[in-house]
Amino acid sequence: MRCCHCEPSAGTVSSVYSRLRFTPINSVDQTQEEQPGSKLLPQCGCGRGCCMAASLVFRLHDRGPELVREVLLERGWEEYDKRHRHDEDWNLYWRASLFHKSDYYNLMPWQRLNHHPKTVGITRKDYLTRNLRRMRTTFGSGVYDFSPVAFILPNDYIRFLAEYNRQRMSPGLPVHWICKPVDLSRGRGIFIFEDIKDLVYDSTVIVQRYISNPLLISGYKFDLRIYVCVKSFNPLTVYIHQEGLVRFATEKYQLSHLGNLYSHLTNTSINKFSPFYKTEKGKVGQGCKWTMSKFRHFLHCQEVNELILWQRINNIVTLTLLAIAPSVPHCPNCVELLGFDILIDVKLKPWLLEVNYSPALTLDCQADIAVKKGLISDLIDLMNYRWVDRFRDRAYKRKLHKCLKVNRSSYVSMPALTNVKCSTQKVKEKKQSQVKLPFLKMAKSQQKTSDLVPRYQRHLPPVEMNKPGAESGIVSTAKTTYTDNKSVDLILEPRTKLTGTKRLLCPIISTRLPDLSEVTNHDDDETETEAVPCGETDVSSLTCDTPTQDLESKPSADSWKLPNIHSVGQRPVNTTSGQSRDREAAVPPVRVGDFIRTFPFNSATLKASQDCLDVKTVIQELLKLTAKLSYCSRHNRRQRLDSAREGEGDGGFESLFWGPKDPPLISHCLKHL
Ligand code: ADP
Question: What is residue 172's predicted lDDT score, i.e. its pLDDT?
Fold first, then answer.
């Protein structure tokens, strides 16, 4: 097969048109079914990687993390190599550090980044402290009581001193403090103190109340690493992975030895160097990690009321995200994998220690392998690349459609690129005044525009060499196995609902984005299907795909389109009458792989998260649910059933209860606790 780089006539309308006809009609297959076989597709041999039909391309910053590479290669993706690919010829860009502001502005519709802008508001220790303090002031310390009181020094020194003295004066056990540099991670620079004379620092630090009564297993301290995926901040859509890690200290907990980091810190980066790392440590065993499944089993054996614990952790995640969600710019093509570190005290109260921006994805032990590979794989499923490719595919068709409309009569002989440019120019002029960009980045130079064909060609399946006309690149639609009636419709009358594109290309990044220099908690070097196209759960089947809408309507639902393999009885939610059908259908699946949707969790929170996030309502709903769950767990069966009835009739909106093994539906929990 030849491509535009090997074939001089590639720029003619006829060749473009022939490619167009071979554009995968069911781009559904592109990401789901193509993966195992994508390598088998013939390539042109031009060496630019532009003809590798339907393959998805990932780009790793600084060549890592290795796990992401491994998972994506196994799924049939290809790694971006700038020597062989165009600048924008990738689908996913993964980096452990912050993206630059321009990375968000220059995103193409098919491209995804693994970070949302501005999440630094919770991933840097001092920002998290400040944001949670603000939320506590606004919504009450009863709700925001899950983070140990903290002070940012030197700024808060006077306030800290006052609190320190107050604690010193009050009767009871002595209070301990932990000092952490804000710009370091993996336990570096951390120390614990009781007496203020031991507090020494030479950079900005947070001094936080030390949770001195942690729950211990065989005398060892541990914390939980919870993996949270924020699929979207607007509308807020959150998933928590069922698997996670339990990270142990490697020496027994002793308050009398505050200087022993192997006893007080649970960071793997520290404990893997402990002399006791490989020693059998009671129930903990060797090493310093468990999977969350093992921890669940442990809790079960202890007859602990697990559900309340999971719900509290759930609440911590949601309440923390609420602190920044309204200020995160809308960026539908971004996803965020966060690592929440949770410490549980002897009273089974979970505490938030910090939120990690780039949770470590190194595989140090068996528990890592068991958890992280599945995690990344599920994350990729959650990103639902099928749809991104549809964007890309249709954007291409749409552009060609415009070109063909202008030159339909003479399409065989007219040079395609001229026409593309010309129609592009018209669109550009028309749109310039509206600050709305069409599907492709019209603001780019003409050279970029003329690059259109080669850039898109990678997504076109190869011409079957045994078909008549294949060699010339002109194959009759009727004779090709790639085409059907639907495809002809798509070519001649694109029905693309490229709603995401408009917003994507004009990101609302009005507020200041963090500079690259801003440090956030990433412990990355510590050591991160279904193919049924339009099921009932697939909102695309309910939307009106008209070209007019393409440019004007909102895309919120698009970023929510996910494979429906794990959807449990999802039905469109009955929302207020004035809302569009998109809105009604915008219920993200309850589960994708081991990612359980934790927000929105009922129709009220779904509604509250639309357009402008109603934080107050969300918090009220969260409190209501928590109260119901604890009520049910305390009272007899009859009362439980009464309460359960209250939980029913939520317009068919069902949510799974994150945490327990084989997560039950929340409504089921309320009935059968
Ligand atoms: P880092 O980003 O350096 O990992 P963390 O805030 O996660 O910093 O703290 C490192 C470790 O210190 C935690 O994993 C936990 O074991 C311990 N730790 C941190 N804060 C507290 C606290 N307030 N109370 C008890 N232990 C804490």
Answer: 86
* Two tokens, residue 200: 């020494």
For residue 212, give both structure tokens.
Answer: 């001195």
Q: What spacing in Å lies between the alpha carbon of 180 and ligand 1's midpoint?
A: 8
Answer yes or no: are the C-beta atoms of 23 and 396 closer than 8 Å.
yes
Mean pLDDT of the chain: 71
CB 41 within 8 A of CB 52: yes
pLDDT value at 173 more than 80: yes
Ligand 1: nearest atom to the Cα of 184: 3
Query: Mean pLDDT across the stretch 639-648?
Result: 48
Taking 60 as the threshold, does the pLDDT of residue 228 lie above it?
yes
Q: Tell me how far apart the alpha carbons of residues 618 and 606 are, in angstroms, rounded to a whole number.
A: 9
* Atom 9 (ligand 1) nearest CA: 187
Q: What is the pTM of this model?
A: 0.71
535 burial type by CB count under 10 A (0-12 exposed, 13-18 middle, 19+ buried): middle
β pairing state of 350-356 and 591-592 = unpaired
Ligand 1: residue of 192, 211, 353, 355 to mutate (most ligand atoms within 8 A of CB) is: 353
pLDDT digits (tens, 9 = 90+) for 81-101: 988 888 888 999 999 999 999
CA of 223 to the centre of ligand 1 (A): 9
User: Ligand 1 — pocket residues by CB below 6 A?
Assistant: 148, 178, 180, 185-188, 190, 208, 210-211, 223, 265-267, 341, 343, 353-354, 521
Cα–Cα distances in angstroms (integers) from residue 239 to residues 34, 510, 575, in the given order: 26, 27, 22
Nearest residue to 119 via CA among 207, 229, 217: 229
Cβ-contact 523, 360 below 8 angstroms: yes
Tell me the CA–centroid distance for residue 642 and ligand 1, in Å.
42
| Span from the CA of 233 to the centroid of ligand 1 (angstroms) | 27
Which atom of ligand 1 is least distant from the CA of 150? 23
| Beta strands per DSSP E along 61-176 | 78-79, 92-94, 112-113, 150-153
Q: Please check whether residue 526 is in contact with residue 268, taking contact to mean a CB–CB distance below 8 angstroms.
A: yes
How many Cα atoms sit within 13 Å of 129 on the Cβ side?
Answer: 21
Compute the average pLDDT of residues 623-644.
69
Mutate to test the pocket of ligand 1, among 178, 217, 254, 316 (most ligand atoms within 8 A of CB): 178
- pLDDT tens across 240-281, in order? 999 999 999 999 999 999 999 999 999 999 999 999 999 999
For residue 111, what are the CA distances in angstroms to 104, 261, 389?
A: 10, 42, 9
Identify the residue with better confidence: 87 or 377. 377
Alpha-carbon torsion, ordered 182, 186, 189, 195, to 10 deg: 90
**Which residues, other chains included, contact 404 with Cβ-Cβ below 8 Å and sequence gap of 6+?**
13, 17, 411
**Dist. CA 183–CA 127, nearest whole Å:** 11
**Mean pLDDT, to the nearest integer, of 216-233?**
97
Q: For position 304, what pLDDT does the model report?
A: 84
Q: Is pLDDT above 80 for 451?
A: no
187 CA to centre of ligand 1 in angstroms: 7
Q: What angle do CA 241, 242, 243 make, to 5 degrees?
A: 90
Element (H, E) at 216: strand 216-217
- Please tell me which residue, 463 or 89, carries the higher pLDDT value: 89
Q: Do 205 and 160 meet the contact criterion of CB atoms below 8 Å apart?
A: no
The answer to which of 3-12, 83-92, 188-197 has the lowest mean pLDDT is 3-12
The answer to which of 180-194, 291-305, 399-413 has the lowest mean pLDDT is 399-413
- CA 321 to centroid of ligand 1, rounded, Å: 20
What is the whole-number distance in angstroms between the Cα of residue 244 and the centre of ligand 1? 17
- Note the pLDDT tens digit of each residue in 537-551: 222 222 222 223 332
